[in-house]
Specification:
Immunoglobulin-like; 3 domains; Rossmann fold; alpha+beta; about 35% strand; about 475 residues; elongated; five-stranded mixed sheet
Length: about 475
């Protein structure tokens, strides 16, 4: 049955309960073909199982690949993937004797793990080139979190099949429908207490993107079930790009304006960049974190070739440094910009964080940095207006290498101000970004900087032209 309103439908409930009764008696969810050609008949025939597998772009040759089969049941998909050469882990929330029997009869080496989807993480199961996620979504109490868990362990692609509420709709109807998700509190769907949600196809597609997959493609909708391929990477860049690479000058936490992100918090990256490319749209943005594509959520034109794109910081990032880069459909990738993931949130003390081993400037023997240029991040000039989203960008050169943000101290009119982030531009060139003090008076202001091992740099100046009632 593939009607749009299966929840509460008595015929659908009767069909599901007949299936449950069959499985309670027979036990075999999948048919299994044995080495001698005989077949253990299951609820799903071999042709049904093969047709579903053919619907997805799963390579025939999986040698050297690691694959996870989530919701493995009696294991046909797991054994088929192993037959293609993959190292396979089968996973389910219950242990079925039929799976062990099939594995013995086939001489299989598929590993079985008894886990809930909520327990999946790179730490518990590692990473997989491909993940099968068939018939699981609607059983999850927290389906978006479950999809995030799947995304976090996927290197290349996850293949998702789920019940959808618009299974009998036309392709045009599905394409123009709003994203809708039904919630079933008890046994509304098929008389089963563990059927929690019913998405329509657009909702399922959108949730897969929201979970972190770069690209999501609907392969088909058959018998009330949608089949989606969810990819971790963007398409390859253009062989002959027609636009220059964007230049990232800031990537900050939407809550703190800092480059630090924190475990367990729902934080977003505000990525500021410049490009002369005209007519940018959200659909043209290609953001990566550590080489994996990340869907962009908002794109804003800041004027003067300045842009802002926001995206969710992947919650599964491990503590430490991570690299962000950006391209458009028509450009190569930018240089990377580093952010840092931390386990705990730490407020920055006034004046920023400074290392205790800082050498007094008058005693320093390391060559002073050379401050080469100051700029307003919004206007590309040395004039500021006191706007909240203005950053003071300082470019400098130094023979020192391996600098981190805490290695650099910056002063405005002799008062230290926090360096929010530091970027290695290569070739001994560096960039700092800072905010101006809120109480800074209009006029001409002096800037200098140093590292914890050097003397102070030369001085450069900027102008502040505050106007009353400006945002």
């Amino acid at each position: 049955m593939s009607g749009e309103r299966l929840a509460g439908d008595a015929r659908f409930k009767n069909t599901v309960q007949q299936q449950v009764a069959y499985l309670s008696q027979k036990g075999w969810f999948h048919s299994i073909e044995l080495p001698d050609g005989s077949v253990i008949e299951g609820f799903h025939s071999l042709e049904e199982l093969r047709e579903r597998m053919r619907a997805f772009p799963i390579p025939e040759d999986l040698r050297g690949k690691r694959v996870l089969d989530v919701g493995a049941w009696t294991g046909w998909c797991s054994f088929e993937l192993e037959r293609r050469g993959a190292e396979v882990v089968a996973m389910d929330c219950i242990e079925l004797e039929e799976f062990h029997m099939a594995r013995r009869l086939l001489g299989s080496r598929v590993e079985l793990k008894i886990l809930d989807v909520d327990e999946l993480s790179p730490a518990t199961v590692g990473l997989f080139d491909y993940v099968l996620f068939f018939g699981v979504f609607y059983h999850l109490r927290h389906p978006l979190l479950g999809l995030e868990k799947i995304c976090s362990i996927t290197r290349e692609a996850a293949f998702v099949e789920s019940y959808v509420t618009d299974g009998s709709a036309t392709e045009q109807e599905r394409a123009t429908a709003p994203c809708l998700l039904e919630f079933y509190e008890t046994i509304e769907l098929g008389g089963q207490v563990d059927n929690w949600y019913g998405p329509n196809t657009r909702c399922l597609e959108a949730m897969c993107r929201s979970a972190g997959f770069a690209r999501v493609r609907v392969e088909n909708v058959v018998a009330g079930r949608a089949r989606l391929t969810c990819l971790r990477h963007w398409e390859p860049p253009a062989a002959n790009p027609t636009q220059p690479a964007p230049w990232i000058h800031a990537a900050v936490n939407n809550r703190t304006g800092d480059v630090y992100f924190h475990h367990g918090k729902d934080e977003y990256v505000c990525l500021y960049f410049k490009t002369p490319e005209p007519d940018l749209t959200l659909e043209k943005m290609r953001v990566e974190v550590d080489g994996y594509g990340v869907p962009a959520l908002v794109l804003a034109d800041l004027g003067r070739n300045g842009w802002q794109v926001n995206f969710r910081c992947p919650p599964w990032l491990e503590p430490g440094a991570h690299e962000i880069r950006l391209r458009t459909l028509d450009s190569p990738f930018s240089r990377p910009f580093r952010i840092e993931k931390r386990l705990l949130w730490e407020p920055a003390p006034p004046g920023g964080r400074h290392r205790p081993e800082e050498v007094p400037a008058e005693a320093a023997t390391v060559e002073a940095p050379r401050l080469t240029h100051l700029e307003n991040s919004l206007t590309e000039t040395g004039v500021f207006h006191g706007y909240r989203n203005e950053y003071l960008i300082c470019w400098f050169t130094t023979p020192e290498t391996g600098l981190v943000r805490e290695d650099v101290a910056l002063e405005i009119d002799g008062v230290r101000e926090p360096v929010l982030f530091l970027t290695d531009l290569g070739g001994g060139a560096w960039q700092t970004n800072s905010r101006l003090p809120a109480d800074l008076a209009p006029g001409r202001h002096r800037v200098r900087l140093r590292t914890i091992r050097s003397r102070w740099s030369n001085e450069l100046y900027f102008h502040l032209e505050k106007e009353e009632n400006k945002p």
